[in-house]
């Protein structure tokens, strides 16, 4: 067992016994960790807000690589996003980011680029115009998938590398666009508008902080359906984002497929 320091974003927590807590943290140094915080449920807690969901914190842990639960001895909050973000819509999009990490990332493996993308996304959610938040979240979903090895192919047929169909057909199962010949043998392809295809391309490659500049909100619903179907096919633990479903349920005017206005 070695004493280690790490930085991470708290993803979720749940109680352990009468006074302790298990904290799931996505860390820069070790990937997704489950930490046991003894006495964390006492009032006042020596951990402060460092263990609260959406807190970006520095931790001192006793790391033992052959076990699932690590013991945390110290925690210091760098940014407590969960308490700093007061707008419900912004908070839902920030929670959607950590929910996606929880669903798509598995195991203790460092991924510095993914950690930085998560930080940039939460910062963008806090600062971007509210109208840009759907684009920020969609960009994050697409870029997380890309960093994990599932970048959708949009410039040529994903099956044969041939010229794209003029009908703009996207296969969630194959993970990209299709030509006419391959589309004839592929069930479940989705027809995209020209704007949606352009939006997918831009959101896959541009910085998340700039995402709102490249996507009209009216296309968010169309693109979100494509992205969600794509993620469901390629990530077994992905089953939609409950944070955004909750946001939609609070807005009776939001059309189905646009769960974040």
Question: What is this structure, in a nutshell?
Answer:
With 261 residues, the chain is α+β, with helices and mostly antiparallel strands. The chain is 35% helix and 22% strand. The protein has two domains: 2-83, Nucleic acid-binding proteins (OB fold (Dihydrolipoamide Acetyltransferase, E2P)), CATH 2.40.50; 87-152 and 185-248, de novo design (two linked rop proteins) (Up-down Bundle).
What oligomeric state best describes the polypeptide chains here? single chain
Distance between the termini: 47 Å
Beta percentage is 15-25%
Q: Tell me the structural class.
A: alpha+beta
Overall number of strands: 8
What coarse outline follows from CA principal-axis ratios?
Answer: elongated
In CATH terms, what is the architecture of the largest domain?
A: Up-down Bundle
How do the helices and strands follow one another from N- to C-terminus?
Answer: EEEEEHHHHEEHEHHH
Tell me, what is the CATH class of the largest domain?
A: Mainly Alpha
Classify the fold: give the CATH topology of the largest domain: de novo design (two linked rop proteins)
Biggest sheet details:
5 strands, mixed, barrel
Low-confidence stretches: 255-261
Radius of gyration: 20 Å
Give the integer mean of the pLDDT values: 91
Fraction of residues in helices?
25-40%
Number of domains: 2
What's the tally of helices? 8
Q: Which strand order do you get reading across the main beta sheet? A: 1-2-3-5-4
Give a structural overview.
With 261 residues, this protein is α+β, with helices and mostly antiparallel strands. The chain has 2 domains: 2-83, Nucleic acid-binding proteins (OB fold (Dihydrolipoamide Acetyltransferase, E2P), Beta Barrel); 87-152 and 185-248, de novo design (two linked rop proteins), CATH 1.20.1440. It is built from 8 helices and 8 strands. A 5-stranded mixed barrel has the order 1-2-3-5-4. Strand 4 and strand 5 (69-80) form a beta hairpin. Helix 2 runs antiparallel to helix 3 (112-127) and helix 3 (112-127) packs antiparallel against helix 4 (133-147). It is elongated. Residues 255-261 have low confidence and may be disordered.
